[in-house]
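Hi support team,

I've been running sequence recovery on a batch of backbones for a student project. Most finish fine, but this one hangs at about 90% for roughly twenty minutes before it completes. I'm not sure whether the input is malformed or the queue is just slow. I've pasted the structure tokens below so you can try to reproduce it. Let me know if you need the job ID as well.

Thanks,
M.K.
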């Protein structure tokens, strides 16, 4: 009968773990180091610390997953903006090439190809390029200026 009255070691450890649930991690560590390895108190302390570490790791994994999803979304958004920027840059390069070939209305010489008269080139070509760009949509530049990425959980 005496054997039936004594609790099993696993029941003792489980009861101690329940008791330790309300204790601080520091107190649990102290109690663990005060008891020999393999004792019910040591086992209960180790179990409780392992459970708490597992809970912290699970929470950290969830947070990491959320941040990775946001980073993936931001990267995809930036890829789209980069594609728009590349397209706009190519369009602007084509416009610049086209403007270089424009002759003034008097037909005397091509100001944009003039190597000697840089000021005249700027005075003539910049307004022409500005007018050409004003008619062209630069959605990538506008998108970059208005983009706001939020990477907080």
């Amino acid at each position: 009968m005496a054997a039936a009255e004594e609790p099993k070691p696993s029941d003792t450890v489980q009861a101690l773990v329940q008791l330790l649930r309300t204790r601080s991690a520091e107190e649990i560590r102290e109690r663990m180091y005060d008891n020999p390895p393999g004792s019910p108190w040591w086992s209960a302390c180790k179990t409780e610390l392992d459970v708490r570490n597992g809970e912290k790791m699970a929470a950290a994994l969830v947070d990491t997953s959320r941040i990775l999803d946001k980073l993936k979304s931001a990267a995809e958004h930036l890829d789209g903006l980069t594609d728009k920027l590349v397209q706009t840059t190519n369009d602007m390069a084509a416009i610049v090439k086209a403007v270089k070939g424009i002759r003034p209305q008097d037909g005397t010489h091509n100001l944009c190809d003039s190597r000697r008269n840089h000021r005249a080139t700027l005075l003539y070509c910049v307004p022409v390029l500005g007018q050409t760009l004003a008619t062209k949509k630069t959605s990538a530049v506008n998108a970059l200026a208005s983009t706001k990425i939020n990477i907080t959980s």
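--
Follow-up from support: It reproduced on our side and the slowdown came from queue contention, not your input. The helical segments are 2-5, 9-20, 25-34, 40-100, 118-135, 139-146. No action needed from you.
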